[in-house]
Amino acid sequence: MSGSDNPYGGSYGGQMSASASYNAAPAASGPAGGYVSDTSTATFPKDVIEESRRQPVLVDFWAPWCGPCKQLTPVLEKVVNESQGRVKLVKMNIDDHPSIPGQLGIQSIPAVIAFLDGRPVDGFMGAVPESQIRQFIDKVAGPAGADQAAEIEAVLGEAEALLSDGDIQGAAQLYGAVLQADPENAKAAAGMIQCLLAMGDTGRASQMLASLPEDLAKDPAVQAVAKKIEQIEEAAKLGDPAALERQLAANPDDHDARMKLAKIFSVQGNRDQAADHLLTIMRKDRSFDDDGARRQLIEFFEIWGPKDPATIAARRRLSSILFS
């Protein structure tokens, strides 16, 4: 059959207009070519409708006599296989199975229709170039890497929650998994150092910090944990907290002893007590150490994080002192 006999003849490259959502999960990885298959009228509901509820499915409507189909299909298969499961490709021979394309109103082939959540959402017609196929897949499946980025953020959130709940080992495993997938992830690096500190292994934490690339070491999350290491090392040299408390009981205006206790309490995790001591110094003598108590409290906020309850409570109290 010649091209002029093509009952679906029409202009090539015509774009169908529709919108697609990006909420589909990628398919499980498989062997090369595992993302391409054929379908029939009988298997279309399972191969396309059901499968599209798990990830985007592209349906290639073609016929053996269609010259442009022979140009498009190999390129389409190549791009789909290279997408590694972001989409699946299902091919339907319209000569053998005319009812489905008829129901969809396919009037020209090759025609590629994207299905998502059990319904057609977008498509194109004609032997379009490879670059346009890649753009189409990005449109229906989201940009390459978007799923991994979202998954990494979810894992980081879970790891942070585990660390906050005291499950150091579980948090460390998740941070380690992220670092395997993305060695330059600053949040994961900072989280792993936090885990080492929580285990009491300041030495290994310092070694890991020193081994980070310069750009990574400058990240705010890493800088915060670096300051925490500095405070731990400094607190170890400040003396016995019990002796400092006796010293302070004898002289409540011994701001130097109070400052040292604040630093020790922060390292020990007694953040509210640490903030109490610094705010007390501020109320009594803003000139001590050139307003050093306020500067130290701001540094604590950076280490504790803006969402920490101790940070939130102390910031309110700080504001009442500064603006009263």
Automatic annotation (TrEMBL):
Which keywords appear in this protein's UniProt record, sorted alphabetically?
A: Disulfide bond, Electron transport, Redox-active center, Transport
- PROSITE patterns reported in the protein's UniProt record: THIOREDOXIN_1, THIOREDOXIN_2
Superkingdom is Bacteria
Does Transport appear among the keywords? yes
Pfam families this protein is in?
Thioredoxin (PF00085), TPR_19 (PF14559), TPR_20 (PF14561)
Location of the Thioredoxin domain: 14-142
Report the family membership.
Belongs to the thioredoxin family.
What's the protein here called?
Thioredoxin
